[in-house]
Amino acid sequence: MNNKNEYDFLRELTAADDRRISRVARKYPALDKSALKRINALCEEKLKMKENNNVNNHAVSEEEKVEVIRNIPWYRRPAFTAAACFVVLAGVTGGVMALFGGKNNDINPVESMPPLSNVETSDAESTSDVTTEAATDTTTTESSAVTTVEATAETNIAAETTEQSNESIEMPDLVGKSYESSKDEYKDYFQLIAETPEYNDEYESGTIIAQTVNAGTTIDKGSVVKVKVSKGSQPENDEPSVNVPDDERIDELINALKLTEAFMSNGVELDCDMDDNFTDESGQLYVKVTESGFNTIADVENFMNRYFTENYIKIINSRYKALTDRNSEKFIEKENGLYIHYAPKAGGFNELNIQGVAERWTDEGLLQVDLILVFDDFGEPSTFALQLVEVSEGSWKINGMEEMPIPEYSE
Amino acid sequence: MTDDKWLELLEKSPKKAHTMLIEEYGGYVYAVVIDKLRSLCSSEEIEDCVSDVFVELFTNIHNFDSSKGSLKGYISVISKRAAINAYRKLSYRQHITMSADDEETELPVSADNPEEDVQKKLFRQRLWEIVEGLGEPDSSIIVYQYFYDFKVSDIAEKLRMTAAAVQKRSLRARQKIKKILEKEYAKENSYE
Lengths: 411, 192
Fold this sequence. Notes:
- Chain A has 411 residues and is of the alpha+beta class.
- Chain A has eleven helices and 13 strands.
- In chain A, strands 6-7-9-8 form a four-stranded antiparallel beta sheet, with no helix packed on it. Chain A has a four-stranded antiparallel beta sheet with strand order 10-11-12-13.
- With 192 residues, chain B is an all-alpha fold.
- Mean pLDDT of chain B is 79; it is low at 96-111.
- At the A-B interface, helix 1, helix 2 and strand 10 of A face helix 2, helix 3, helix 5, helix 6 and helix 7 of B.
């Protein structure tokens, strides 16, 4: 019988040194053009996010500048405040003069302005935000007004940027919406990234079917939100995009099939002690089973349940004359072990060769893998499809067998 | 392209340089990263880690000094560090305890049995020779299956073959490798 880990030595290929890794990467590239494109796009997005963070950090430093002003000694603050007020007043005066210039030269610019206390109150916030530079640059009315406006605008931009960086938004429900239009619609709020599209019968191609951030969750503006996008219903002829059972499991299942066959041809394939035997009343010879792990009928049942579905056990019981039926005459359990009905038989599954694997969905929605096996049927090659189903994730069992013509493979 | 040319391009046209660097070194970074993260995360997560490597490279390219080493070496260091960080995060998430050996990027050499280590090294070298000597597409199938841990369906897509054909060729190739090794082992033993 084959050892199920017989190819484990190939795992040594993973313990590669730097030179080998470099060579493998060059000779057997893992990434195709689309993967490289995906990585490039991911990089661009991450770099953009980093850049945004840097801008936000810069905005914080503007805040720090304001903090410097706030830390100015108390005795110097009135001077700055007065200077700033003067700048504002001058600006207003300049504006008024420009508006009424020439029409009423008698207007006293100082009298036409609101009281100083009012200005102080209404502009209190902006005054505190005015930079030192603006506050000191007050030599002429017009130029100071311009400087003030510029300085205030700069401060406003800084404040706005800071405000943006701290801004949180509520995640909308995107399920059922178009990925492309959502990406566009919310581009100013968060970055939408689609994972590998999946088949989905409910939503048409391009529609979002799931999102990593639940609707209603508060997220920071500019966050990355991953979504799953539908690629529509699975076409009927499309191959399932899931893995076939791994080699270990395939080997196990084939060995289980061979052993089950050996139950029929005991004395030829199954390990038995021919010298430990007895004959029943009908003259049938029974020999002791020495195959490891088979000491009771319950061991045979457990073996069957481990590798075969209920459906296939029924088939086995009819094909192999009720192997798991305690009332059958196939096995007799004695105190010193298990005895099997001796019926030597040639041929069988002792030489099974895998010719290929085909995948399809069963009517019940289970993935079925047809393992195409060829065996020597008394000198003639015979092919059949061993039907394997994934009963739970990663767990495969034999569900049936189907004789078939020898298939042709396209390579 | 020489390292200095890369730096020049990064300065002149960063976006173009990024794309070209990913094309040139993407496969290498992937191979370094998968060496650490194999069987621990999905291909998407590995691609994410690869993109992290390049982001770090692009943002810290000013730290690279071509007089001290090659760009590839610099990328290799960043890749290993990123892979180890990702491994730590993932193993923490998956409650896998890291052994001290996992910190090593090279195969740790056991002080107890250096002879065994040498033998292992020689075995790996011979194994690679046999695998590469199989011829295509069998060599690729085995490398993608065992080194990269790709699924049969992914290998089939990559090599434009059917999954059945991949499975069949893989089995034959493995049988062939095993036979060669067994033959060599028997020959060696007969000399002793």
